[in-house]
Amino acid sequence: MNLHEYQTKQRFAQFGIPVANGKVATTPEEAAEIAAELGGSVVVKAQVLTGGRGKAGGVKLANSPEEARTTADKIIGMNIKGHIVQKVLIDPASSIQTEIYLGITNDRTVGKALLMASSEGGVEIEQVAHDNPDAIIREWISPSLGLRDYQARNVANDMNLPREHWNAFTKITQNLYRCYLESDAILAEINPLIINGDNQLFALDGKMVIDDNALYRQQVLAEVRDVSSEPRMQVEAREAGLTYVKLDGQIGCMVNGAGLAMTTMDMIKLYGGDIGPANFLDIGGGAQADRVAAALRIILSDPDVKAILFNIFGGITRGDEVARGILQALDEVPTTLPMVIRLAGTNADEGRAIIDSANLPNIQSAATLTQGAQKAVAAARGA
Amino acid sequence: MAILLDSTSRVLVQGFTGREGKFHSQKMMEYGTTVVGGVTPGKGGEWVHGKPVFDTVKACVDATDANVSMILVPAPFAADAIFEAIDAGIPLIVCLTEGIPINDMAKVYEYLKNSSSRLIGPNCPGLLTAGQAKVGFMPNYIAQPGNIGVVSKSGTLTYETVAAITAAGFGQTTCVGIGGDPIIGTSFVDVLQLFEDDPQTEKVVLMGEIGGRAEIDAAEYIKAHMTKPVVAFIAGRSAPEGTRMGHAGAIVEGGQGTAQQKIDALREAGARIADNPEHIPDLLR
């Protein structure tokens, strides 16, 4: 789960990381009021859960409350990579001497948190990693020892950060790690961490990603999830206990298991050429009728879908149970779209018999995954 | 022979009295696995399938000489269950639980590396040695004894492929599901090494997916050390960047961990690549 910049900075402030005292506006009028309150120049920043806001024109300087109003008016409602801007953060403008990148993420290759820093702040770390990998300084953090002060000093030293800032830098780094850990984050980054005109270290922008698996114990963060910024189908799927990702193809997929779901998408792409999968959807184990129905509703609410492919391998999940689930779901959510059903594994024959006995003209069955993908592609073309 | 698990393995189940724990231990016993007992804190003294339930792993091990633990407890308690199994000195721990927070797993991983235990998983289907024993979710009927070793990050895709290998007339030594989380106890390389050293295993099937670099490490290991042929399939060629595809670890980030990079590395290392998992049996001929 991603946090907005303003949410991240509120969190940072709670952990003692210096941030600007800006506020969030949802209307141009509010933006003007906040700018007047702050006084002087402000920066109006689009709050969207995607990178590249600056390039898209979502971050602008305003020298007066009136200018903040007109700027906010332009930015609110803007479409940045498919995300509609609903809120802007109004921060006091800062003078910048130096920009630093400081981030903590999980390094899955060693199973530890990784502290990364670069004197090339303000640009995305992936870009630095690509253009100038040596500019990134890394320290791995032992989960049992925690971040040691010397590690922060190592980083400060390697970045040639002037010594007068080392104490403040160490403190910010320790606070960032505490914030990372206590928020169950998988990414907490300050970019840029600046040295401002008053020679103080200061978090100008920030980003946090929270581990979805830990949300059960991060109630406060779970409650600030901005569902309005997510596709509606994704929210519905999550609430139904399904994993759904919208893709840009034409064949809706309903599969049990994440690996098999990805493979089903790959097979559609392999045999489809210009026809591709419309979604990733894992219905998980068990596949009871209500869950199949919820999944079907979500797939059918996607107007791009021209055909549906069910691919169920019955292990623990039984084919006859899934077949009944599909028929019950079709009762609740009728459709005339062509459907291809491929059942394999436990009780697959019984499952196929149940589907056949329903005699639905828009359903055909497939014996293999390959055949299922090919039939679904043909059906999507014919539709 | 085979690897990790055989007919002499003595399995205890952490989470024995739960619905899933009961169901799957029943299936394991039907397969011939020696399940010696289980653990559910607060339920010591009860019996499940005629086997004793203990309050602690230590008590269970003392009484039963268990040497494998299957963990099937809810995610909030799973890390603690793994620590308990490590401290009880269990050599092989198989954690099936999905959804363990990554910070918990970072602590487990560090502790594990300083112990003598091996962890398979978490978020995995477990493992099965054909005709001998199984720990986890793999359906009982999919495998038959043979000489193909299978290692995979996924569940149902593995069942499919193992069943297809069996249908084509081959059999398996051991099928190992290592799990789809970012931090797992046993990597592809660990299992490849075991298969390379196992005299009964003649060929290996590896099934990977997008995210991380475990398959790249596997390719490097294959190139440098494997004498046995490897057939590989990588899922997620059509997955978009920056989106988690079901498994917590299945995500392409910053252009890294794509299916194509993994396919290229494995092909370069001499593995045969299947672009469709149903073609894997053909590539084993």
- Write down how many β-strands of chain B occur, each being a DSSP E stretch of 2 or more residues: 14
Helices of chain A, by number, come to 13
Distance between the termini of chain A: 37 Å
Largest sheet of chain A: 7 strands, antiparallel
Work out the count of structural domains of chain B: 2
What is the approximate shape of chain B?
globular
Report what the structure shows.
The complex is a heterodimer of chains A (383) and B (285). Helices cover 38% and strands 26% of the residues of chain A. Chain A has 383 residues and is of the alpha+beta class. Chain A folds into three domains: 21-92, ATP-grasp fold, A domain (Dna Ligase, domain 1); 96-223, D-amino Acid Aminotransferase, Chain A, domain 1 (2-Layer Sandwich); 231-382, Succinyl-CoA synthetase domains (Rossmann fold). In chain A, strands 1, 8, 9, 10, 11, 12 and 13 form a seven-stranded antiparallel beta sheet that branches. In chain A, helix 5 (149-158) crosses helix 6. The radius of gyration of chain A is 26 Å and the shape is elongated. The two termini of chain A are 37 Å apart. The two termini of chain B are 23 Å apart. In chain B, strands 3-4-2-1-5-6-7 form a seven-stranded mixed beta sheet, sandwiched between helices. Chain B has two domains: 10-120, NAD(P)-binding Rossmann-like Domain (Rossmann fold, 3-Layer(aba) Sandwich); 141-284, Succinyl-CoA synthetase domains (Rossmann fold), CATH 3.40.50. Chain B is globular. Chain B has helices at residues 19-31, 57-64, 75-87, 102-113, 156-167, 188-197, 214-225, 259-268, 280-284; strands spanning 10-14, 34-39, 47-48, 51-54, 68-71, 92-95, 118-120, 126-129, 133-136, 145-152, 172-177, 203-209, 230-235, 272-273. At the A-B interface, helix 4 and helix 9 of A face helix 4 and helix 5 of B.
